[in-house]
Amino acid sequence: MTELITSRNNPRIKTAAKLRERRGRREQQRIIIDGIREIGRALDAGVNILETFICESGLSEEGQSLERCLAESGCELVFVNQSVLEKIAFGDRFDGIVAIAEPPNSDLNSLAIHNQMLVAVLENVEKPGNVGAILRSADAAGVSAVIVTDAGTDLYNPNSIRASAGTIFSIPLLTCSCDEALAWLRQADFQIYATHVDAVVDYTKVNYCGHSAVVLGSEAEGLSSVWRGEGIIPISLPMRGIGDSLNVSVTAAILFYEAIRQRGDE
């Protein structure tokens, strides 16, 4: 084992701790991943994990197994005590392990087009927890990719990673402007369904088979006028109470599973 780091003021620890903030992640071009499940899924997805901080006294058997996998991958293991790891870790979760990684490629042009794609587009969804929850539902429903436009949140915020249960690494997650996303969808001949609270077309009355894109906006602002153009079908979910909208992650899950119902065994 290498030397144990016991000082919370160690320069390496200070640098890693800055990744808890958006500014630090942007400046270092690194992300921080908490949790055995999340780190394991990132590793399985081929994310480039650069270093892992480990408190051996806090590791479960599952954590020890992950430690061996990380060592075999060539990732640098840095051993620390519990106090030091708590400075790096996000929130009050303590699994005995925290990883530092390069953010995955998010270029829209890297997305390969294949048959029967279902794509989700998120415009300015602000809360990291909502982004993570949508990604978790997208992974479960077999959505081909999630495109985030005019991002109002830091995609790899630790809250997004946690809320996604690590599925944020298993599904293509792309970023671009609204105009770029719309142009890409049209060029690839997608049928586009945009969620609007004032839409008169029920979400169950459209066809999600073939190349389809579901577009969702923020709860506060909804979708911009970009998503009211030619060839875009506005859809809505019935609201029979006093509320006028659902949480965006709930709406996304309903639409994804309606697509599954229609597509059957595709």
> Radius of gyration in whole Å, from Cα?
20 Å
* Order of strands across the main sheet: 7-6-5-10-8-11-9
Apparent shape: elongated
What does the main sheet amount to? 7 strands, parallel
Q: What is the structural class? A: alpha/beta
As a percent range, the share of helical residues equals 25-40%
Keywords:
alpha/beta, four-stranded mixed sheet, 266 residues, seven-stranded parallel sheet, 11 strands, single chain
Commentary on this structure:
The structure is a single chain. The protein has 266 residues and is of the alpha/beta class. Helices cover 33% and strands 20% of the residues. The protein has a 7-stranded parallel β-sheet with strand order 7-6-5-10-8-11-9, with helices on both faces. A 4-stranded mixed β-sheet has the order 1-4-2-3. Helix 7 links the parallel strand 6 and strand 7. It is elongated. The mean pLDDT is 92.
Summarize the structure.
This protein is an alpha/beta fold and 266 residues long.
